[in-house]
Amino acid sequence: MSICEVRNLCKEYPGFSLSNASFSLEPGTITGFIGRNGAGKTTTIKAMLNIIHPSDGEVLYFGLPLSEHENEIKQRIGYSTGAVNYYPKKKLKELVSVTKTFYDSWDEGAYRQYLDLFSLDEGKSPSEMSEGMKVKCNLLLALSHRAEMLILDEPTSGLDPFSRDELTDLFLLLKDRGITVFFSTHITSDLEKCADHIVYIREGRIVLADTREQFHEKLGAPGETLEETMLRLEKEARHEKTAV
Amino acid sequence: MKKLLFKELRLSVATISYFFVAFALLAFLPGYPILLGSFFTALGIFYSFQAMRENHDIGYSLLLPVSKADIVNSKFAFSVFLEGCSFLIMVIVTVIRMTALKDSAVYRTNALMGANLVFLGYALLVFGLFNYLFIRGFFKTGYYIGKPFIVFCVVCMLLIGLAETLHHVPGLGWLNAFGSDHMGLQCAALCVGIACFALLTGAALKQSVRSFERIDL
Questions:
Q1: What domains are defined for chain A?
Q2: What is the dihedral of CA B190, B195, B196, B197, to 10 degrees?
Q3: Which partner for A220 in A12, A229, B7, B201 could form a disulfide, CB atoms 3.0-4.6 Å apart?
Q4: In angstroms, rounded to a whole number, what is the distance separating the alpha carbons of residues A74 and A15?
Q5: Any idea where the domains of chain B sit in the sequence?
Q6: Do the chains contact at B10 and A94, CB–CB below 8 Å?
Q7: Which of A61, A87, A100, A139 to mutate: most B Cβ within 10 Å?
Q8: A101 with B62: Cβ contact below 8 A
Q9: Mean pLDDT over the full length of chain A
């Protein structure tokens, strides 16, 4: 059974529409959500979390519709928009002391373990942390309540190559622990390293949602890297548009 | 709700909001428009909303396993809590002024509004207006605080001006009654204040939940 199923998600904005976005995520896998800036990645993720209201379609987690089981589902998933950008002057331990009261499944042992693994200092506030540490901060909060799935919007944006590498290593570690990771990015090299599946979105439409191998097979040309495939596809789409 | 209220008081509140609650003590001042004490409490709560916005509190709250309606309810609970603290101070001051200090010359010769049950009714009306005009206005966007606060300030100042004028109108002198004078009318005025607060806050909460649910963040 899929851990998350997105069915025909639609959202209209002036000048942009998300059209029938559909894909599913398997347990214990890493899925990269790629597309250029403005393609609809954040809109899709926000709709997947009920932060914006889709005009049509539905999202199911663990077989349960989000619209009817929002609180129950949010107990079991973790979400982050990249780095921690809230309460920048509060110490991590203060944020944790409040956040943990909301989760029935908060695991103090897991919190200490991830705190150690991520080398985070709970006496520091987000404003004193590097961008990479802020991303880890969000992951820490999500993982300490034993989230079975992480939804991360552009977690690697703004990180230096070393921090990105460290983060993708971390995703692989989480995958080994059975956690499903879904993250959006426009940095295709992150996907080459860790993604099992790729969901490719362009102008609000899902072009393909498949395994990384199938993605190469269906859309790539021989010898092309994922980045080259993406660039070629985007250029082709632009040319088609200007020709019309 | 308890968890969210704890979150509001631990994380979201601007410390200055607690300080502004103490402005309820202005009710002791003779020759001062004491209704401004409730305005200052509202101003203190406004600072907390400002801090919440600067700290991306809504974004943080959305990560938690709570609904959007819960977020709205908690902001109202937090505001009503601070208003309640302020009101409690005003009640204590009013009781002191209506009993131990009722014959004090400095209060007797005071041309401005005195602390009595009518004053408490007005204070509740100010809080109700704050909840309806400001908090409800904030939840229309979940972001903008300037316009709803200006609207509240204008209405509040007009109300304070009106309240300070009415007891000088012939026949309405009881509005500024001392001690237990005109107790029936004073109680009636307090009841009107309580009803206004309940109606305005209830309507604001209902409409805020509806509009916050509708907006895309």
A1: 4-86+148-243 (3.40.50.300)
A2: 90
A3: A229
A4: 31
A5: 2-214
A6: yes
A7: A87
A8: no
A9: 89
